[in-house]
UniProtKB/TrEMBL annotation:
It comes from Branchiostoma belcheri. InterPro entries: 6-blade_b-propeller_TolB-like, Bbox_C, NHL_repeat, PML-like_CC, TRIM-NHL_E3_ligases, Znf_B-box, Znf_C3HC4_RING-type, Znf_RING. Pfam families: NHL (PF01436), PML_CC (PF12126), zf-B_box (PF00643), zf-C3HC4 (PF00097). Its EC number is 2.3.2.27. This is RING-type E3 ubiquitin transferase. Residues 328-364 are annotated as: Disordered. Keywords: Metal-binding, Repeat, Zinc, Zinc-finger. Residues 96-137 form the B box-type domain. Coiled coil: none annotated. Residues 16-57 form the RING-type domain. It comes from the Eukaryota. SMART domains: BBC, BBOX, RING.
Length: 644
């Protein structure tokens, strides 16, 4: 055997990818990755019942006796022994040499236990597997080889698909980088144009200011000159009259009396002080700038968005997903969790206990220490935390969330008089605007504006940039909690203390109300959040009665589902609700720390996210799309986005 081949075998097969040393008691995981038993013991937390492969991140259940119960890798052990003894003459072909049993010393392994699906020795047959059906390995190995060869061939055929996917994803990365550079250039160019236009407008305004100032100054100067002339005349006449009165005789005084009287009366009638009739004194030069002018400038700058598109990658991605689904399903006959050294090791891993790992890049950075589980049909499905937003202020209380155009996450902060808008792509705070009232919930109108429910039951309508353009006063709501807007623009408000739901017309006038205190189908006990589906049915979270009730658009009762408890389909103080495009209903189960998915008729489907996904006290929920969920954690001052 050449040294080169020996080096390749050592590197490829006999080196643990955790410690990067030769295997010591190799253990194989269901994903077929092998590691040292000691390395896995250190890798797995103390009392963990599952193990996640360090390489591919596939999760599987551990045997009852932990890592020790995992199946040993006979091939690794055999190759290691051959390298140790230098017996590698047959390394390139099938080796007919005996494999020794790990449990019974030098006893050769020559039998195959069909129930356990493992090779065993004669001692194993007599003791641990005596009640099992077993055959000679030579009788089944050909069939197994052929079956594995067929599977290998099918798997190899998928390699070009993945290679093509990687190549096209790399091209997509380059394309995305070019898109960023292009958009950055467009933003800079637009900003330069806007700045140039603003500079031009500044020059125009300053020129206009100079023109107005010169005209006003000229008028004032002319008036000032006139008044100064009159003052000189007044002083001259006063001096003349004073001297006549002081030094003139009676005849002289009487001779000029008429002349002096007329002159003095004329001078006395000249307007002075407040009596001056000067137009420029009644005018003021001002700069007029409306409060919304700056937001108008921002709007003219446009915005950056990311549109979903169907392109040449779609069929490829669909093919990859089908392949992943096929290779993620465990074989009904394979028992990779059982160890021939420990026949009492565990039963098979059930499909519902295994979460297949996605091989498609997520498109967003994976957050450290967060679970990364792909979509599953299991009743309790894990979710991927895409991002979490944290406000600059630690006092954020996100009591209401809404999604605008799949780009903006709008958050009502009940502890301050502001609404915050975050990017659904990055989680960064885009902008904040004051609403002069403590907001309880937010919703998006059909026109794309933001509706804000105040603590007094009033509704404020703002543009996406936060400019208020309409205010509807309270319509008798005692304790407003939830707000929804249907496709007709009607406002749906839940009144917790009033135990009812009120519906307002688009202009803010009352349309109708329904409910009342109680536990009947048409009554409520502290209704919290509300939502509407694609049929404009009204979905109400009846928190005190621990259930969800659905009414049609006129307030007629349709159905209810849920009772108090911790089991599937039960709630403990449900809060936020929302509906997807198919009418399925998502419910934030407050005290059970989970979000559950129900069909449109109220049948429990599965859990979307739960405490195992580090969810704590979910409050409000909203959907970015049918597979991306926004959840507010009121007590943790966070808003999280999950992919499910």
């Amino acid at each position: 055997m050449s040294a080169k081949i020996l080096d390749e075998i050592t590197e490829e097969f006999l080196v643990c990818k955790i410690c990067f040393e030769d295997y010591k008691k190799p253990k194989v995981l269901p994903c077929l990755h092998t590691f040292c038993e000691g390395c896995l013991v250190k890798y797995v937390p103390g009392k963990a019942r599952n193990i996640t492969c360090p390489l591919c991140r596939e999760e599987t259940a551990l045997p009852d006796n932990g890592v020790a119960g995992l199946k040993g890798n006979f091939l690794i052990s055999s190759l290691r022994e051959k390298l140790r003894t230098g017996n590698m003459e047959k390394a390139g072909a099938a080796d007919d040499g005996d494999t020794r049993c790990h449990s019974h010393g030098d006893c050769p392994v020559r039998f195959y236990c069909e129930p356990c699906e493992i090779p065993v020795c004669a001692q194993c047959v007599k003791k641990d597997h005596k009640t099992h059906k077993h055959v000679f390995m030579s009788d089944v190995v050909t069939e197994k080889r052929e079956h594995l060869s067929e599977l290998l061939l099918a798997a190899r055929e998928k390699v070009p698909v993945f290679e093509t996917a990687i190549r096209q994803l790399s091209e997509a990365e380059d394309s995305k980088r070019e898109e960023r550079e292009r958009v950055e250039s467009e933003v800079i160019s637009t900003a330069e144009k806007v700045v140039a236009a603003i500079q031009q407008q500044q020059d125009y305004l300053l020129t206009m200011l100079d023109s107005i100032y010169l005209a006003e100054h000229r008028e004032l100067q002319e008036e000032k000159d006139r008044v100064e002339t009159e003052l000189v005349s007044l002083r001259s006449s006063c001096d003349f009259t004073e001297k006549v009165l002081q030094f003139g005789n009676d005849a002289e005084i009487l001779s000029v009396t008429n002349q002096m009287t007329g002159r003095l009366q004329k001078l006395s009638d000249v307007p002075l002080g407040e009596d001056l009739k000067i137009d420029s004194l009644s005018r003021e030069i001002r700069y007029v700038m409306r409060d919304d002018d700056m937001s108008w400038v921002a709007e003219k700058m446009g915005h950056v968005e990311c549109h979903m598109r169907v392109d040449r990658h779609s069929q490829l991605v669909e093919e990859i997903e089908k392949t992943i689904e096929k290779f993620s399903k465990p074989s009904s006959g394979m028992d990779l969790a059982r160890d021939p050294e420990n026949p009492a090791s565990p039963k098979k891993v059930k499909p519902s206990e295994r979460r297949p790992t996605s091989l498609i890049p997520n498109g967003v950075p994976e957050l450290e220490d967060e679970p990364l589980w792909a979509k599953s049909n299991a009743p309790f499905a894990g979710a991927t935390l895409l991002l979490q937003t944290e406000a600059p202020s630690a006092g954020l209380r996100p009591c209401g969330v809404a999604v605008r155009g799949e780009m903006d996450i709008v958050v009502a902060d009940s502890d301050s008089m502001v609404v915050q808008v975050f990017s659904s792509l990055t989680g960064n705070l885009r902008h904040t605007f004051n609403v002069d009232i403590y907001p309880k919930d937010v919703a998006i109108t059909p026109e794309g504006n933001i509706a804000i429910l105040g603590c007094d039951g009033s509704i404020k309508l703002c543009t996406p940039q936060g400019r208020l353009f309409r205010h509807n006063d309270s319509s008798g709501v005692v304790d407003p909690v939830g707000l929804a807007v249907d496709s007709n623009g009607r406002f749906v408000i839940s009144d917790a203390d009033g135990h009812q739901v009120k519906v307002l017309n688009p202009n803010g006038t009352p349309a109708f109300a329904f409910g009342g205190y109680g536990d009947d189908d048409t009554q409520f006990d502290d209704p919290s959040y509300v939502a509407v589906n694609h049929r404009n049915d009204i979905i109400v979270s009846d928190e005190g009665n621990h259930c969800i009730k659905v009414f049609d658009s006129s307030g007629k009762f349709l159905r209810r589902f849920g009772t108090q408890g911790e089991e599937e389909g039960q709630f403990d103080h449900p809060k936020g609700v929302c509906a997807d495009s198919h009418g399925n209903i998502l419910v934030a189960d407050w005290l059970n720390n989970r979000v559950a998915l129900f069909s449109s008729d109220g049948q429990f489907q599965r859990y979307i996210v739960a405490s195992t996904d580090r969810l704590r006290r979910p409050c409000a929920v909203a959907l970015i799309s049918d597979w991306k969920l926004v959840v507010s954690e009121y007590n943790n001052s966070r808003v999280k986005v999950f992919r499910f």
